[in-house]
Amino acid sequence: MLLTEDYTVEVVLPLGATNIKVDMPFEAEVTTDGVNFGTLDYFGAPVITIKSSNANNLVDSGDITITYTYSPAMLIMKPLYLSSIVFAFLVVMIASFRVSLSLKDDQEKQKQD
Questions:
Q1: Cβ-based burial of 67 (10 A; exposed 0-12, middle 13-18, buried ≥19)
Q2: What are φ and ψ of residue 49, in 5° steps?
Q3: What is the per-residue pLDDT for 62?
Q4: Spatial distance between the Cα atoms of 87 and 93, rounded to a whole number of angstroms
Q5: Are 47 and 34 in contact (CB under 8 A)?
Q6: How far apart are CA 19 and CA 31, in angstroms?
Q7: Short-list 27, 45, 23, 28, CA closest to 36
Q8: Which helix (H) or strand (E) segment is 20 a member of?
Q9: CA trace torsion 57, 23, 31, 29 (10° rounding)
């Protein structure tokens, strides 16, 4: 015997998932407007929310099937973000070590002339 009648299921899909379709063996309210932001997520991953009330008899009625299309190029998105951040940090560090911002060297050169 189940003690609750209202269910909410949230499914977080991969970043870049499109053409989302939800097939269920029972009636429920489905929203696909949610967005979840995780580590290194600039666009946000889509979230599907399924809400059902009076679902005591519907839990064992079948599987929920979620289908979507996913671009293989999105697999490399996070490694590209991370490597570009590391590269930019290294370029800034190299440039900061190459540039001298001290005024003492300029003053000493002027005294020698």
A1: exposed
A2: -115, 125
A3: 78
A4: 10
A5: yes
A6: 14
A7: 45
A8: strand 18-23
A9: -30
